[in-house]
Amino acid sequence: MNPRLLAMRVLLQVLVDGKSLNACSTLINSSIDDAKDRAFARELSFGVLRWHPRLMFILSELITKPLKAKDQDIVCLLLIGFYQILFLRVPDHAAVSETVKLTQKLKKGWAKNLVNGVLRELLRERENIQIKIESDLVAKYAHPLWFIHKIQKDWPEQWEILLEKNNEQAPMTLRVNQQKSPTKEYQAQLLDRGFYSSPSNFSLAALVLEKPCDVSLLPDFDVGAVSVQDLAAQQAAYLLELPKQGRVLDACAAPGGKTAHILEVEPSSRVVALDISEDRTKLIRQTLDRLGLEAQLVCANAGDTDSWWDGEMFDRILLDAPCSATGVIRRNPDIKTHRTLEDVQQVVHNQAKLLETLWPLLKPGGILLYATCSVLKDENELQILSFLSTCADAVELKIESGWGNDRPAGKQILPGDNGMDGFYYARIQKVNKDLILESAIDRKGYI
Ligand SMILES: C[S@@+](CC[C@H](N)C(=O)[O-])C[C@H]1O[C@@H](n2cnc3c(N)ncnc32)[C@H](O)[C@@H]1O
Fold it and tell me: Does the C-beta of 258 come closer than 6 Å to ligand 1?
């Protein structure tokens, strides 16, 4: 299939049907055999969504009457045309003619002149439009206005760089399965196949690829030598300080990236991996099978403990909470168009509920690791400060690390810091209530 046409189909599914880009990416893999064309279709789909707010601004500058709902395919074609002209090294004449040609394939010959005219107008007006972009917040930073305002409020010093970093492409980072081979050995195998990579100071298992590639090209990927996982996500297994034979709850586990890392770091762990989605629970099984690891898989709402908990308490709980995913916009640019302020309020409520319900399942002395791939304070430090203020047997354990920013509670990684995704971690220990009482008496001399 024509890569531009396929990109248009993907964009329609994301922008009109509200599907996730991730789900539509499989369409790209299954519809195009040629690797170069596949990469081009991916570039167009991801690129248009990455710059969507800016490209829509340009569209509003170039057409006076919005196109009808049934002609959103033509809107997508125009955005694909803009993206090629402004961001890719496709020669201008090819960007225009190849995009215009597709109006025929769509059996919308009437749109030929429109697409041709609008794209040529952009070529003529490029500089003037650039000046207008600079003076419009949404067009300049290519994010929705509610999000820009929220980031300005949460990160008054860093908001601009944060938004700019969100518009960059994230590196492809690997996690070498230490049960199979040391990182250095795997790096050498990669090099034999022509893939350059660098190790990281922040995870002994990590290798950052110089250029992303298809996982099927990675040595022994099928037999579990390696997984794809961002450096920020790799911190979870280390922060849990896993004891031998510890009972570990991974409360929101799918697709199982962190579950697997826990088992790679401490294979004696007895892991219960839970997810609310049946389809996504199957992904945990696939992840573990590929890596040759074992955990108890449960499909349930973690917050409904009566439905799944057997009464045995946990030494460690990982709550990788459902969140706004605003820290991983680099990898999922469709978040810009899908996410709303109301969604954020809903996830904040759900996170608080999950913290409250899972806390009683932790043994005294045990550690709960709270994680999100969000950059919003409501979901992160404010959530944890609120939890700590209401929970008498919870104390924060400081995270000592070379990455991230220390916050009043927990640690925040902003997107692009050390190349990492935007992530938040807080470690909370359950202390024995009697010990708290004793220490209060020690401090005050009385109760
Ligand atoms: C951030 S993802 C988890 C990523 C996973 N920890 C990993 O590293 O591969 C959040 C997951 O939480 C699941 N989820 C959302 N609400 C849940 C709930 N109430 N109980 C259990 N799982 C839930 C979602 O289906 C989703 O798979």
Answer: yes
Residue 353: what pLDDT?
Answer: 98
What CATH class is the domain 3-142?
mainly alpha
Cis peptide before 243 (omega within 30 of 0): no
CATH superfamily of the 235-437 domain: Vaccinia Virus protein VP39 (3.40.50.150)
Cβ neighbourhood burial of 12 (10 Å; 0-12, 13-18, 19+): middle
Distance 321 CA to ligand 1 centre (A): 6
Ligand 1 lined by 144 (C-beta under 6 Å): no
> pLDDT (tens digit, 9 = 90+) per residue, 340-371?
999 999 999 999 999 999 999 999 999 999 99
Choosing from 252, 323, 373, 391, the catalytic residue is 373
Give me the half-sphere count of Cα atoms (radius 13 Å) on the Cβ side of residue 400.
1
Evaluate whether 76 touches 10 at the Cβ level (below 8 Å): no
Dihedral sign for Cα atoms in the order 293, 295, 299, 304: negative
Residue 26's pLDDT is: 85
Rounded Cα–Cα distance for residues 304 and 320 (Å): 16
CA-closest residue to ligand 1 atom 13: 252
CB atoms near residue 318 (< 10 Å): 27
* Ligand 1 midpoint to CA 3 (Å): 33
Question: Quick check: CB of 303 below 6 Å from ligand 1?
Answer: yes
CB 198 within 8 A of CB 165: no
322 lines ligand 1 (CB under 6 A): yes
In three-state secondary structure terms, 320 is: strand
Encode pLDDT of 155-182 as tens digits.
999 999 999 999 999 999 999 999 999 9
pTM greater than the 0.90 cutoff: yes
243 burial level (CB within 10 Å; 0-12, 13-18, 19+): middle
**255 CB near ligand 1 (under 6 Å):** yes
Q: Which of 252, 335, 357 to mutate to test the pocket of ligand 1 (most atoms within 8 A of CB)?
A: 252
Assign a CATH topology to domain 173-228. Answer: Alpha-Beta Plaits (3.30.70)
Looking at every residue in the chain, the average pLDDT score rounds to 95
Q: What separation in Å is there between the alpha carbon of 374 and the centre of ligand 1?
A: 14
Q: Whose CA is nearest to atom 15 of ligand 1?
A: 322
298 Cα–ligand 1 center, Å: 12
| Catalytic residue status for 391 | no
Residue 87 pLDDT exceeds 80: yes
For 357-421, where are the E strands, in sequence order? 362-372, 394-397, 405-406, 411-413
Q: What ranges do the domains of the chain cover?
A: 3-142, 173-228, 235-437
